[in-house]
Amino acid sequence: MTLSARSRVLARGMALLALTLAMTTGATGLAGAAEAQAQPVAEGSISFSGDAADYITQGRSYSYATASQDRLSATASQDGGVVSVSVDAANGEWWYLDLAAPAGTSLAPGEYTGATRHPFNEPTQPGLSLSGEGRGCNTLTGSFTIGAVELGPNGYVKKLDATFEQHCEGDVPAARGEIHIDNPAPPAQLDLGLAVALEGTASTLNGKATLHGTVSCSKPVAVQVSGNVTQVKKQNLIRGAYDTSVACVPGAPVAWTATATPSGSVPFQRGDVEVEARAWATDPDYGQAVTANETVAVHLRRG
Predict the structure, then answer these.
(1) According to the model, what pLDDT value does residue 24 have?
(2) CATH number of the domain where residue 235 is located
(3) How far apart are CA 122 and CA 115, in angstroms?
(4) What is the mean pLDDT of residues 13-30?
(5) Are 225 and 277 spatial neighbours (Cβ–Cβ below 8 Å)?
(6) What is the rounded distance in angstroms from the CA atom of residue 122 to the CA atom of residue 259?
């Protein structure tokens, strides 16, 4: 039976849940773990094998490569201290590999000895974890060597050459392997711009304030624009929120219009208001939220 990607993630969690519960409450937890969206690997491979009594490999050899239609994904933590790789093989097998530098440092070429199970390694120790196919170590010892590593923004892994050795429960039998990732240069990050027009309208019919402006972007994205309008008239504080969305394309500013409804019984009126504006979009390459903020004085005319 072939599991869906979601089922595989669930299976991994269930397989390791009992192992996690066995760890003490004093473990370091997920500090420094990968936070960004995993990126598909354009060109890469991972292979590993184990001794006959090794629990993870069951004494077998495994080899996966993008050239063989196996899907590899990789992501790094924001501080560059952890690289996580997942394998979704063409034959339905699935694996995960984590390599972690000691806390406060970034992965760099060199040998990392004295590794224990990531993410429960002590801050002064490197972390390692090879798991998959429903099997994971409760505790482990091991080491890995980074031959080359290049990271980009938002967890992008451009290059990784590494070898590793892992002993489940500190036993003598080991799993040994190597990984190679060679991705193109990372995509540029999304740039988002926001402008609010200095004039708007206050409706004499319904008391709402209509605002205008533009957004700009370096990639095609859906942009959400929202904020608040505040006005003081005759000792009355008038406030209202607005929200709209617009399809932004690079090349020229794209117009947006939104209407703020007063939260109380006093309508917006002709005169000056303070407009707080926020534009929000998700970078399609990295899955990261990008925002732009503006606070300006806007003059409302009757409309």
Answers:
(1) 33
(2) 2.60.40.3930
(3) 9
(4) 35
(5) yes
(6) 53
